Amino acid sequence: MSNPRVVVIAYGNPLRTDDGAGWHAADELKNRFAAPEVEILQVHQLAPELAENLSTVQAVIFVDAAVAEPGKTHPGEVCIAEINEHKVNQAPHSTFHHQFSPPSLLAIAGKVYHARPRAFVATLTGEDFSPGESLSPKIQRALPEFVQSAEELIRPLVKAP
């Protein structure tokens, strides 16, 4: 079996309403992409063990919910951003902390596996992070756009030489 070209890592807590947006998006993406080209993982949080998954892929996409920043972002907003080398170089390289970010995971993959996949973060700004298994109505309505944006990001990465 060949290695995937792209790995999607959806993370968050599916038992905290909109914090599960990444998991919901991953469920939809599983219906649109097949292995072996795309591997889709759903995890509660980023951990150093995931660096191995980045060691052989050409690209990684981190899919998550975001918290609204007053005056900057609003619930239902979709954001796609590429993670540049500067952010990776500024990230902590230690595996001895409890909070991992996409840049810190990429830094570990680079240090341990000499891997430098292209990396992106796709977020959907949430509205409600209280206990619950369903997305809030506003985020449920925004989910198709979020999934479509992620799909449009993945398709050319899968086809790239």
Task: Write a structural description.
- This protein has helices at 21-30, 85-90, 102-113, 137-159; strands at residues 6-11, 38-43, 59-66, 78-82, 118-125.
- With 161 residues, it is of the alpha/beta class.
- The protein has a single domain, classed as Rossmann fold.
- A 5-stranded mixed β-sheet has the order 2-1-3-5-4, covered by helices on one side.
- Strand 1 (6-11), helix 1 (21-30) and strand 2 (38-43) form a beta-alpha-beta unit.
- Helix 1 (21-30) crosses helix 4.
- The relative contact order is 0.25.
Question: How would you sum up this structure in a few lines?
Answer:
By secondary structure, the chain is an alpha/beta fold.
Keywords:
161 residues, Rossmann fold, 4 helices, globular
Let me know the largest β-sheet. Answer: 5 strands, mixed
Named at the architecture level, the CATH assignment is: 3-Layer(aba) Sandwich
Strand order of the largest sheet: 2-1-3-5-4
User: Tell me, what's the shape?
Assistant: globular
CATH top level is Alpha Beta
In terms of per-residue confidence, which ranges show pLDDT below 50 for 5 or more consecutive residues?
94-98
Topology readout:
Layout lengths: L5 E6 L9 H10 L7 E6 L15 E8 L11 E5 L2 H6 L11 H12 L4 E8 L11 H23 L2
Parallel strand pairs: 1-2, 1-3, 3-5
Antiparallel strand pairs: 4-5
Helix pairs in contact: 1-4
